[in-house]
């Protein structure tokens, strides 16, 4: 995910080296180093575990939802076992096991992960709101800009 954060942001476009987002990698590495300098190892370990479990759970549930709501959607890869075993049972079992492990986490770790998730969602949607092609009135796919957009007013 961090590879796509800087795409289209003028401040980060010049910092790519062989397609790698050098600046964003350096910034995220610095933030991780600072957190590890000031937080106890058990807190960071719990945050990493609970964060990974929540991401794994969300991916598993999303896979199930897409298999049910859009079964004919082209897939880049397929799990062996067909629709019921590979497409339904494996994602269900992975979501169930992630939820089971998540239930064993400490309450402060869960609160911290959801707080970080909230901060991330605010940043994500704020950036999308202020930089979306539709909001800026940039034509998408040959369609004219919307009547109320900034480009249409110019």
3D architecture notes:
With 154 residues, the protein is mostly helical. It folds into two domains: 1-38, no CATH class; 40-140. The protein has helices spanning 2-5, 10-13, 22-38, 41-69, 82-102, 107-131, 133-136, 150-153, and strands spanning 16-17, 20-21. Helix 4 (41-69) packs antiparallel against helix 5 (82-102) and helix 4 packs across helix 6.
What is the gist of this entry?
The chain crosses the membrane at residues 20-41, 47-69, 81-103, 109-130. With 154 residues, this protein is mainly α.
List the helices and strands and how they pair.
Layout: H1 2-5, H2 10-13, E1 16-17, E2 20-21, H3 22-38, H4 41-69, H5 82-102, H6 107-131, H7 133-136, H8 150-153
Antiparallel strand pairs: 1-2
Helix pairs in contact: 4-5, 4-6
Radius of gyration: 20 Å
Number of DSSP strand runs:
2
Task: Quickly count the domains.
Answer: 2
The class by helix and strand makeup works out as mainly alpha
Query: Mean of residue pLDDT?
Result: 81
Note the run of SSEs as H and E: HHEEHHHHHH
Total of helices: 8
Poorly predicted ranges: none
| Shape, per Cα inertia axes | extended
Strand order in the largest sheet: 1-2
Largest sheet, if any?
2 strands, antiparallel
Strand content: under 5%
Q: What is the percent of helical residues?
A: over 70%
**N-end to C-end Cα span:** 35 Å
């Amino acid at each position: 995910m961090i590879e796509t954060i800087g795409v289209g942001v003028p401040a980060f476009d010049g910092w790519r080296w062989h397609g790698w987002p050098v600046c964003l990698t350096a910034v995220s590495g610095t933030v991780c180093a600072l957190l590890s300098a000031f937080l106890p190892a058990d807190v960071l370990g719990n945050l990493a575990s609970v964060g990974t479990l929540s991401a794994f759970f969300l991916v598993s549930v999303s896979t199930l939802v897409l298999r049910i709501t859009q079964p004919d959607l082209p897939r880049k890869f397929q799990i062996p076992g067909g629709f019921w075993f590979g497409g339904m049972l494996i994602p269900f079992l992975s979501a169930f096991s992630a939820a089971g492990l998540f239930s064993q986490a400490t309450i402060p770790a869960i609160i911290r992960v959801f707080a970080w998730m909230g901060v991330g969602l605010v940043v994500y949607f704020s950036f999308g709101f202020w930089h979306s092609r539709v909001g800026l009135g940039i034509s998408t796919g040959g369609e004219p800009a919307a009547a109320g957009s900034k480009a249409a007013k110019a």
